[in-house]
Write a structure and sequence with these properties.
By secondary structure, the chain is mainly alpha-helical. The chain is built from ten helices and four strands.
Length: 246
């Protein structure tokens, strides 16, 4: 069987191979452009590839057989949450452009949210969309308000998320739910659904090591006890952030 040229390394360029630093231990993980994620060889954390490219799969008639899903049908009701994720990853990459740090942040939040979803339950499409879209208002906030402050993100994010999700055909009820999460992902606002709690915890799992790098054990324990809204999120935080996991 002839191999797809897009996946044949003989046709690749140097930029088709990239390196990403693991958020868990700092180990450098090498990616081919076709890798969506890989396990970190240092700590085992699943690291997502912000430079993943599907190339011709966006129009190829054999994309489903090649990838296991149809990228062109990402918004269709029957295609499942993973197709929505792939379409939205491309939207996030387009929205943030060369800002690889923010792309990587969204993908790491998605990774944690998906793991929590398996145990906590909830509407998968809402969780996945909100995890990827939660910071989508940052650049607009910087342009309009001159600041990426949380309150400005929550103002500017929902209209952008609504436009993207409407274009993908997510469904009005799900879109409204996602927009409420995006509009409250820093303040909690007036929303406390299972889907919101998962995205809230996933975002904190990424943010805590960056915002509190010097926190001692007792301070970190108090932070975890006060911040996390799901038992799964709290367990993951204790395992990741506390020595001995307790």
């Amino acid at each position: 069987m002839q191999r797809c040229p897009g996946q044949d390394t003989r046709y690749w360029r140097p930029e088709d191979v990239s390196e990403v630093e693991c958020g868990g231990c700092g180990e450098v993980v090498e990616f081919f452009k076709t890798d969506g994620s890989r396990r970190c060889p240092g700590c085992g954390l699943r690291v997502v590839n912000p430079a993943v490219g599907l190339g011709c799969a966006q129009w190829c008639d054999h994309a489903r057989a090649c990838l296991g899903f149809d990228p062109a049908a990402a918004g269709a009701e029957g295609e499942g949450a993973q197709s929505v994720a792939d379409a939205l990853i491309e939207e996030v990459k387009a929205a943030f452009g060369e800002d690889r740090r923010r792309i990587a942040h969204a993908l790491r939040v998605l990774d944690y949210a998906e793991r929590m979803l398996a145990r906590e339950g909830g509407e998968a499409r809402v969780v996945i969309a909100a995890a990827l879209m939660h910071d989508i208002g940052i650049k607009r906030a910087e342009e309009v308000h001159g600041s990426p402050a949380a309150r400005f993100q929550e103002i500017e994010g929902p209209p952008i998320a609504r436009e993207i999700l409407s274009r993908l055909g997510l469904g009005e009820e799900a879109i409204e739910h996602v927009c409420r999460i995006v509009g409250s992902h820093h303040s909690a606002g007036d929303i406390d659904t299972p889907e919101f709690r998962i995205v809230w915890d996933a975002d904190w799992l990424v943010n805590i090591p960056e915002e509190f790098p010097d926190a001692g054990h007792d301070e970190m324990k108090r932070l975890i006890d006060g911040v996390f809204r799901t038992e799964t999120g709290a367990q993951m935080a204790r395992a990741l952030l506390l020595r001995g996991g307790s």
